[in-house]
UniProtKB/TrEMBL annotation:
Pathway: Isoprenoid biosynthesis; isopentenyl diphosphate biosynthesis via DXP pathway; isopentenyl diphosphate from 1-deoxy-D-xylulose 5-phosphate: step 3/6. ATP binds at residues 95-105. This is 4-diphosphocytidyl-2-C-methyl-D-erythritol kinase. Keywords: ATP-binding, Isoprene biosynthesis, Kinase, Nucleotide-binding, Transferase. Residues 201-264 form the GHMP kinase C-terminal domain. It comes from Fodinibius salipaludis.
Length: 291
């Protein structure tokens, strides 16, 4: 009904390995990367309004046409035409420029929310098609399932890659440019290790020797604190640690809860935005009417 308020959450992701295979003529890069979700979420509340309006509680992120939520609204409007205007309020908790996909995740949720509220009847595959122009990472966020992304990130094989361990993720408060991270890395068309085999067959104890993020080197040269934080995760007892995506956030995977909790508290004391995700976490992709 016209006065309904709709609520939903938009989740962060981390990358489990990231191979940069080739620089393409478009300037984008062919990659393969595993992705799973964190219990780190932005909260959306949406209701009808006289005109489209976006409100976010993060003054560092513009709410003008450059915002990926507004780009998603514009894309959907162009594709099928929206019947109404909405006020979209976002309680933003996922840091931007962190390699956590916060903006991409917001764009995907916006498409799913408006599809549901306006009863547009678009399938996931149609939403995935529409989402491609919004960003390389946006299609991944349409289904809410972990998996391996290839191509520029649009070709997704959904697999259950959600680790059954604790994940501690920390953002050292320095935004990393995705474009720069890719521009400064050296593609390797023949990676030494088979990413899918590692993620689905290798014991996690082996990951630190064979699971790499090819964007780390160039980012750690510019943002040293991220490299130091990766070392710190191992010092805290992580079984595996890596920068996520184009950074600058770093995550550690821990097999014992008290070791993870100790790392989480230690990093929080540094005043960095830090997240603790429990074993086997699955995002709630539901869209609900607020009671
Ligand atoms: C690095 C990754 C890993 O998951 O995520 P984040 O670190 O951004 O979370 C993704 O590849 C980022 O996806 P996304 O953030 O949607 O990238 P886009 O906005 O489409 O592209 C931003 C810029 O990154 C570069 N880019 C992006 C993806 C890709 N496969 N090759 C690239 O070279 C291009 O210079 C592009 O102009
Ligand atoms: N709704 C949004 N949330 C977060 N970042 C956004 C949003 N809209 C646009 N942006 C811009 O996108 C960039 C970060 O996008 P994001 O997907 O969070 O990248 P990353 O995964 O690298 O952190 C920043 O430059 C930010 O200003």
């Amino acid at each position: 009904m016209a006065n309904d308020v709709w609520i939903a959450d938009s989740y962060a992701k981390i990358n489990l390995g990231l191979h940069v295979l080739e620089r393409l003529p478009t300037g984008y890069h062919a990659i393969e990367t595993g992705m799973c979700f964190l219990e780190w979420r932005d909260h959306f509340e949406v209701k009808r309004a006289p005109e489209m309006k976006l409100e976010m509680n993060d003054e560092n992120i513009p709410t003008d046409d450059s915002n990926l939520i507004n780009k998603a609204i514009e894309t959907l409007n162009r594709y099928i035409g929206l019947q109404h205007n909405y006020l979209i309020r976002v309680d933003k908790r996922i840091p931007a420029g962190a390699g956590l996909g916060g903006g991409s995740s917001n764009a995907a949720l916006t498409l799913r929310l408006l599809n549901k509220i306006e009863e547009l009847g678009l399938t996931d595959d149609e939403l995935i098609d529409i989402s491609r122009d919004l960003g390389a990472d946006v299609p991944f966020f349409i289904k809410g399932k972990s998996g391996i992304a290839k191509g520029i990130g649009h070709e997704i094989e959904h697999l259950d890659l959600q680790p059954d361990f604790w994940i501690v993720t920390c953002f050292p408060n320095e935004q990393s440019s995705t474009a720069e991270a890719y521009q400064n890395c050296v593609p390797d068309p023949e990676p030494e290790f088979d990413l899918k085999k590692i993620l689905t067959e290798e014991d996690i104890d082996e990951w630190q020797f064979i699971l790499n993020n090819d964007l780390e080197k160039s980012v750690f040269q510019r943002i040293n604190v991220s490299g130091n934080m990766k070392d710190q995760m191992y010092e805290f007892g992580a079984t595996y640690a890596s920068m996520t995506g184009s950074g600058s956030a770093v995550y550690g995977i821990f097999e014992q809860d008290f070791v993870a909790t100790n790392a989480y508290k230690g990093l929080l004391e540094l005043d960095f935005p830090t997240n603790l995700t429990r074993p086997g976490f699955e995002p709630d992709y539901g869209i609900y009417r607020k009671a």
